[in-house]
Specification:
single chain; alpha/beta; Glu/Leu/Phe/Val_DH_AS; about 400 residues; 6-stranded parallel β-sheet
Length: about 400
């Protein structure tokens, strides 16, 4: 056992959150204008959308619980300085829905949820903001569990856990030197391997001189966008497997470090998607596959850990028409939650977590093979599989 959750004896504090508000969100740009939540294009029948506030700290946060059919909702806590509250709402609704499908297709007994805190993660009172927000999660009584995400790291998760029983992926959950990001990277690496094997198998059908078995990544050219903790770890694994790396990040020291450590070639962030490579691995923020970028992509496979990589579902169909295989992001980045969330429903172990993450190879293969056989976008097939598991449980 490498982590435990000790229940608090105290009763939950007063409810700080407000739920099920149909018209909301006054923003600086639209003062006096309301947004109809239930007709929001990303609403998708969310069970709860909860708006959280702390007057003293000017805490503004949103918790979205999308579906709890398979079990308590689970998904990370993102701290980001959104330009508007409307942007934050759109993001949390999309991310929450994505967690429902991720947890389902990963075979976890968990539903989907997500939360966002509208704030700069570098603000000096970050710990106090996290403590205040965690009380809102506590009032849900285990209906929603949260964890790390953009702007909230494992040590921050331990701060959240000071006032809340429903936090996973904490630094204290793992032995020294082990983190959730390593499992996320392992899942991304495993998914990429499965994707490469699928692409080369299909290529061999058209050209017998192409090797049908391409599980060896040696000499493969991979463009990695985003060199945060998980993106860098993926680069390390790819480098050790013999892949040639092209990298980009908006933070130049991260780029310099990857160039030095892995012999990577560096390119501007706005050109990484257009590189002449075998695989494109988006590992930054979402929406990279859009009307402006899709025509420039030369890779034969896209497989990375960024959430919501497709700007719209139509872009998945466009990739298929161009002969570009796509590993759905909510499958490729499922390794972290598969490993860390075991503490919610079972006795966790490092060996069990690793075995669970490695099972992604077979899941990715199944999705890509079915998508190829049916002539459909892989994301559509994966969502259908995940949705069917939820429907069967209802």
């Amino acid at each position: 056992m490498y982590g435990e959750n000790k229940g608090r004896s105290r009763e939950p504090r007063a409810v700080f959150a407000r739920a099920h508000i149909p018209r909301l969100l006054l923003t600086p740009e639209t003062e006096g204008v309301t947004v109809d939540l239930f007709s929001h294009p990303e609403f998708d029948h969310h069970e709860q959308v909860i708006f959280c506030h702390d007057r003293d700290l000017d805490l503004r946060a949103i918790i979205a619980v999308h579906d709890t059919t398979l079990g308590p909702a689970a998904g990370g806590c993102r701290m980001y300085p959104y330009e508007s509250e409307a942007d934050a709402l759109t993001d949390v609704l999309r991310l929450s829905r994505g967690m429902t499908y991720k947890n389902s297709i990963a075979g976890l007994p968990l539903g989907g949820g997500k939360c966002v805190i509208i704030a700069d993660p570098h603000r000096p009172d970050k710990a106090e903001v996290l403590r205040a927000f965690s009380k809102h999660v506590q009032t849900l009584g285990g209906r929603y569990w949260t964890a790390i995400d953009v702007g909230v790291g494992p040590e921050d998760a331990d701060v959240l856990a000071e006032n809340c029983d429903y936090i996973f992926a904490r630094a204290s959950q793992f032995p020294a030197g082990v983190s959730t990001s390593q499992f996320t990277a392992l899942g991304a690496f495993t998914s990429l391997q499965a994707g490469v094997a699928h692409v080369w198998k299909e290529r061999a059908k058209a050209d017998s001189s192409d090797p049908a078995d391409r599980t060896d990544l040696s000499g493969l050219r991979v463009a990695v966008q985003g060199l945060g903790g998980t993106g860098r770890e993926l680069c390390r694994m790819l480098h050790e497997a013999g892949a040639e790396l092209v990298v980009s990040d908006v933070y130049q020291p991260a780029v310099d470090s990857a160039v030095e450590a892995f012999g990577a070639a560096a390119v501007p962030a706005d050109e990484i998607h257009a590189q002449d490579v075998d695989v494109f691995a988006p590992c930054a923020l979402g929406g990279i596959i859009n009307d402006d970028t899709i025509g420039d992509i030369k890779a034969r496979l896209i497989s990375g850990i960024a959430n919501n990589q497709l700007a719209t579902p139509a872009h998945g169909q466009q990739l298929r028409e161009r002969g570009i295989a796509y590993v759905p992001d909510f499958l490729a980045n499922a390794g972290g939650v598969m490993a860390a969330a075991t503490m919610i429903y079972s006795e966790p172990s490092l060996e069990g977590s690793r075995a669970s993450v490695l099972s992604l190879y077979d899941r990715v293969t199944q999705v890509l093979d079915q998508a190829e056989a049916e002539g459909r976008p892989a994301a559509e097939v994966a969502e259908e599989m995940a949705g069917q598991r939820i429907a069967d449980a209802r």
